[in-house]
């Protein structure tokens, strides 16, 4: 602590040397010169380091939270992939038993499709009708319209654990129906081959989804960099 008379120092600044000496200002001046002015760069650096350290601490806390969220998300995706693989294996083992119920569930829609197509085939030569590309397209379009929606719903129900919706399975269902219709001559029902092909395709799709997810762990690397920067600022 230094005693200082502000009035005496002011009088000394105005020309009273004795008042300046008595005021204690010379000691204060030395303190300012030696402890403040001479160390201005060091004090500024310390203040900047302190501010930078606070900023790094906030960024590190955010990176820690992000890394934890990423870890939890990766664990959940890995568990979902494992469950999907187990479901695929279960369906693959039970394909023969599942094919008949699946075909039976599509029977009402198949009857509607066959009634629509039968009207067009009335009075036509079967061989000529079979070779007619226009009729082939018509059969395929009617089959897709009638069979693809219930097929996608049935497959989604079988794959409920994999969280596949009918909308996600709809493109696959449409392709399967077109292929099965093209392979079934005339007014033959495509249900049995369609059911077996649909189950086999679903198994392949589920096995593809069961591959472990590849995660780019950016947050842990960023956290290590911030921790290194925090140590450098100490």
Could you walk me through the main structural features you see in this protein, from its secondary elements to its overall organization?
The chain is mostly helical and 234 residues long. It has helices spanning 6-13, 17-23, 25-37, 40-93, 95-105, 107-121, 126-131, 133-158, 166-183, 191-209, 218-233. The chain contains eleven helices and no strands. The model has no long low-confidence stretch (mean pLDDT 85).
Topology:
Layout: H1 6-13, H2 17-23, H3 25-37, H4 40-93, H5 95-105, H6 107-121, H7 126-131, H8 133-158, H9 166-183, H10 191-209, H11 218-233
Helix pairs in contact: 1-2, 4-10, 4-11, 5-10, 6-8, 8-9, 9-10
The shape is rod-shaped
Number of strands: 0
Largest sheet entry: none
Task: State which percent range the strand residues make up.
Answer: under 5%
DSSP helix fraction: over 70%
Average residue pLDDT: 85
Poorly predicted regions are none
Question: How does the helix and strand content classify structurally?
Answer: mainly alpha
Work out the helix count. Answer: 11
- End-to-end CA span: 30 Å
Secondary-structure element series: HHHHHHHHHHH
Q: What Rg, in angstroms, do the CA atoms define?
A: 41 Å
Labels describing this entry:
234 residues; rod-shaped; mainly alpha; single chain
Q: Summed up, what is this model?
A:
With 234 residues, this protein is mainly alpha-helical. It is 82% helix and 0% strand. The longest helix has 54 residues, at 40-93.
